[in-house]
Amino acid sequence: MKVTEKLIFLLDGFNLTPKESTFNEIVELNLEGFGYKDIAKMTNSHEVVVFLVLIHRAVIDGEFVGPFEGRNDYTMQTFEIPGALPNMNKIIAASKKHHMQYSNMKKDFTALVQIHAMNLEKVESADFEIVWYCIDKRQDKDNIMAGQKFIFDGLVKAGVLKNDGWKQIGDVSHRFVIDKENPRIQVNIKEFI
Fold first, then answer.
1. DSSP β-ladder status, 126-134 and 169-178
2. C-alpha span between 115 and 129 (Å, rounded)
3. Which residues 6+ apart lie within 8 Å of 63 measured at CB?
4. Which of 38, 47, 62, 64 has the least CB density, counted as fewest CB within 10 Å?
């Protein structure tokens, strides 16, 4: 027991303790079947932190944990878009003002996504998880999700996807996290082998 206490103390000295929200997110993703390496990418956490959370959950809390390694039948790429994309209310308002206003909005935000997706490998067909890091809870989730149109169009413009039809886009899931300091959108692309 003394060895365990010492190890925890040493690791605590390196400030590897995650926030409670990150801890819960790591556990939730692990229970969905993701391993520690993928969870690290998806939560922007260090792999050691994720591994420690899973060990803590299994040994100290005595709770069930999912696989440590995760699935091996897919590859995953991740990229981020800083800030926020237009929500459904903004899209509708732009469309009502003038036909060019929405066209310009679509062009600008598609280009923003394209810029941030330029270094990704090409994908034939994949499942997508979009994590919306919001500044607060004032907008409805379905209103926020309308921005996914810009994401898929931007991936096509960047050459990551050939098209954004049924052949290229598998399942699309959404998660919502509050981050007042750093609002952004994280896109996790899971291409099955």
1. parallel
2. 19
3. 57
4. 62
pLDDT value, residue 57: 79
Contacts of 136 (CB under 8 A, 6+ apart): 178, 180
Cβ(40)–Cβ(53) below 8 Å: no
Q: Which residues contact 71 (CB under 8 A, 6 or more apart)?
A: 33, 34, 35
With beta carbons less than 8 A apart as the criterion, state whether 147 and 86 touch.
yes
Structure tokens belonging to residue 48: 């050691």
Q: What pLDDT is attached to residue 104?
A: 94
Rounded CA gap, 90 and 35, in Å?
Answer: 37
Whether the CB-CB separation of 141 and 99 falls below 8 Å is answered with no
- For 78, residues 6+ apart whose C-beta sits below 8 A from its C-beta are 41, 42, 186, 187, 188, 189
CA distance 105 to 95: 10
Per-residue pLDDT for the chain (193 aa), expressed as one digit of tens each? 444 444 444 355 555 667 788 888 888 888 888 888 889 988 888 888 888 888 887 777 777 777 777 766 778 899 999 999 999 999 999 999 987 999 999 999 999 999 999 999 999 999 999 999 999 999 999 999 999 999 999 999 999 999 999 999 999 999 999 999 999 999 999 997 7
Distance CA 59, CA 26 (A): 16
d(CA 85, CA 110): 10
